[in-house]
Amino acid sequence: MDYPKEPVQPTKQTQPVEKKSQAKLLYAAGGVLVFFVIFLGGFWLLQEKSSRIVESEQPFVVVLPIYDIPPNRPLTAGFVDKMEDLGYKEGVDILYKRYGYISPGPEGIERLHGIYRTYIEEGVDLIHSLEYGDTNVALQETKAAGKPIPIVAGDLINPVDLGLAESWQSSGNNLTGIAETRPEVIERALELFTTIVPNIRKIGVGTQGIMAPGEPAASYLKTLREETGKLGIELVEYTTDVPPGPGHKEEVIRILQNIQEGEIDAWVHIPGHFFANQQAFEHQMTVRLKIPDMLPAIELDDNGEVVAQGEAVGLFTYGPDFYEKGQQLAIMADKILRGGTQPSEIPLELPGRYLIMVNLKTAKAIDLAIPSEILEIADLIIE
Amino acid sequence: MKIRLRGKLILFGLIFAILPLGVAMSPSILRFYDTQRQVAIERQSQIAHHTAQEIGHFLSVQFFHTQEVTLLQSELSRDGVLRNLIMERLLFKNSAFVDLSLVDTEGREVIRKNRYRVIREDDFRDLSTSEIFQLVRERKIYIGDVYFEQGRPLFVIGVGIYDARDEFQGAVLAEIDARTMQQVVSDTTIAQEGGRAYVINRDGVVVAHPDISTVLSRKDFSLLPIVAALKKTPPETLTSSYQNELSEDVLGFWAPIVIQIGSGVPTPWYIIAEENASFAFHHVREVVWFSLMAFLSVGILAVLGALFVSRRIVMPIEAMQRSAMRIGAGDFSQRIPIRTNDEIGELASEVNEMAERLQEAKERNESVSRLKSEFLSIAAHQLRTPLSALKWVLYMILDGDAGSLKKAQKELLGKGYAANERMITLVNDLLDIVRIEEGRFDYKFQKGAIAKVIEDIVKEMHVVADKRGVQFFFHRPSHALPQIALDASKLRLAISNIVDNALRYTKKGGRVDIELTFHGKEILVLVKDTGIGIPKAGIARLFTKFFRAENAVTMQTDGSGLGLFIAKNIIEKHKGKIWIESEEGKGTTVYFTIPVSRQSKNG
Question: Which of A378, B213, B396, B471 could form a disulfide with B511 if both were Cys (CB 3.0 to 4.6 A apart)?
Answer without folding.
Answer: B471
